[in-house]
Known about the structure:
This protein is of the alpha+beta class.
Amino acid sequence: MSAPLDADPGVQYRFGSFVLSPPRRVLLQEGVEVRLIPRYFDLLVFLVERRGDAVHRRDIFDRVWGDVIVSDSALSQAIRTIRRVLGDESREPRYVRTVPRHGYSFVFTAVVEEDDDGEWPVAPRDLPREQPAIQVPEDPYAPLLDRVTRVAASRADEEEQREAAELLHGLGTSEALRRLGTRPRHEFARALLRDTRWDSAEAGPVPIVGEPGALTTVRELIALRLRRAAAMAAARWARASIGGGVAGILGGAAGALILIAAPGSAAPFALVPVLALVGGCCGAAGGAGVGAGLSVAESVARSRRALALVGGGAAGGGAVGYAVQWLARWTLAALVGMDMHVGGGVEGLAIGAASGLGYGLATAPFDGGLAAPRGRRRAVTVAATALAVGMVALALSAAGRPLVGGTIHLIAQASAGSQATLTPLGRLIGEPDFGPLTSALIGCGEGALFGIGVAFGLTRR
């Protein structure tokens, strides 16, 4: 979600052959509207407002991409697109200059700032503009298609391929796809066109399903997006794991303290660090699985994002859940000779899907990067994720599939002399034993706390 910048509502800027109107969100060149996607338009406005200053990358990210996290390559691509629209050159810039190891500066000195209180004509988009006297190839598609189907040998080659794909969108997406056909490496080229269509205001649809080599195209698209977002996805995965671990520690410690304080309880204080450690390990493992699934899904999905997050969360949570389930069973059998059913796989899958659903619905308005809401929006995201996970955890507990607390109680009951039975908690809320109501309440609390931890970790900048 890209919100308009807080520009003066009555100001427009004239520079060269361009008119930039922030209030109308229009860029004109000699009366013809030139389209930019919203974030790129915001970036141009920001640079023009700060003309003459060397604007730091950090300030640009905070101002233009304040609600999402993007990589440096996203900013580089935005600058490249703005330069192309303005007819600028990076080596001899007339408008936008790169400030090495710092950021960018709008260097055109003859900017006229004037009131935007009158009507100015907008020429129809199909009227030709005056073009520079350069040699235009008879078939502009051919060299661009050759470029997007080559094997990139360097990072610079990859950026040139993205620029070529954006130019193909400008020429005509459908015609570019028709000419692409099934030539060698057409799957990669289609994936690149699909990825860059989000950065080109004039791009048309790039279908994949039902087209030649659809599965290979999907694989290429996923690899393409993961390469560009790998570092960000890894950082979010780590933060989600930490968030889940902290939530588990707090939940385990709080549960132990309540258990100790419950009437008729003989649990010692030593149970506090033990349950905190168990909760922290389970929370960190669950957060790692769910966080990895959500981070990967959010990195690769631009359309059907919520569905991808549900699937990614379910896959990550289920994988970790099944691993923990069998590890726990083998550990109990090997160390204490106890053969008992321990859940984990189904529970992890369901909790991961719920995490993806709550997080996906709450962050649906955010696009163009990995969602990083702030303030009230972040609180809404955390609350939505906690609610979704808490409700699913409640349903699991009611269906006889306990989470961490319930599983500890079952293991303690089966072990002679264990001090970790949660029967006093049941009596505290009016049940004679650790009954279904106690199990449901504990499960719901565990789930909600886990959702809070994971969502806080994911949305931390």
